[in-house]
Amino acid sequence: MELLKKRILEEGKTIGSDVVKVDMFLNHQIDVELLCEIGKEFHRLFAASNINKIVTIEASGIGIACIAAQYFSVPVVFAKKGANRNVGDNIYKADVYSFTKGITTTIGISKDYLGPDDRVLIIDDFMANGKAVHGLINIINQAGATVEGIGIVIEKGFQPGGDALRSLGYRVESLAVIKSIDNGKIVFGN
Amino acid sequence: MELLKKRILEEGKTIGSDVVKVDMFLNHQIDVELLCEIGKEFHRLFAASNINKIVTIEASGIGIACIAAQYFSVPVVFAKKGANRNVGDNIYKADVYSFTKGITTTIGISKDYLGPDDRVLIIDDFMANGKAVHGLINIINQAGATVEGIGIVIEKGFQPGGDALRSLGYRVESLAVIKSIDNGKIVFGN
Q: Does A160 touch chain B if contact means CB atoms closer than 8 Å?
């Protein structure tokens, strides 16, 4: 997605060779106009997939998922982080290890909002090692629902998450794939 | 907002005399079509207020804020919970006590995304004691920005948050005000 790559190049801040911060338009401050274009692009890519639910994970996936869901006319369900949180015991859970934070978090989705009839598009802002998406797939499998596709805004192509999921047969569509960050220069692989 | 009150009556689950769960359409599973109507209603209420930024708090405020922001054509900034979180030290912080969880959380917004030129609409899903909104106001004040209004989807009118903010001179617009929950029966005050 050229508009997105342009914004990443113009505004993204690299740290070392593996971090690019886009919290000026994607995951702290949110440019909702850009989000609409991202949502339309996900819809263009997955319109034929007969999706009836979008699943994401709190917090920064929620805005993207909600905006995208408008174009699919489907509801969003977001996995909550941490236990309890007013959801009760009636919950599918999975553990997700974060390399960034060095901790494991339990994520959960209520059994009331995911079931065998659900054909799910997973949406998230970033994919690096893919642990969050694996956690969501685990939960979707527990529910007997189907993963129809995975839509990622920015994939770090130099980390193994995206290709590992593709090799498992999942359709992963990343709107910007960063191939490398070399002396602050971002090189895209798509 | 009649459509919202209808949904609360039809689907909301009360627990005792002070909890109503609406996580089937608002804050776990999200009915994005309803969210669009909520966003339009916030825009109708605050269209004259010359707002140039919407501020909310993770996680369940984000979807509502992003959908509403489309109608205002402004960006969203969401306060993050917990320290660090890849945001750095360049951050306005406030402590927020949660009665539900019985804990104090530090919320923060990067100094890069809030400043004296910002005329802010605060949006959140629920208001009870108003602690989260007070934390956001604290941060907005630190930034020298202006609070133009506060838009709440569901206010628990039997708890003091909304009226305390109104008595401080803030314009608080709640789309559904729950006056009481009596033997499972929800009574609205608006």
A: no
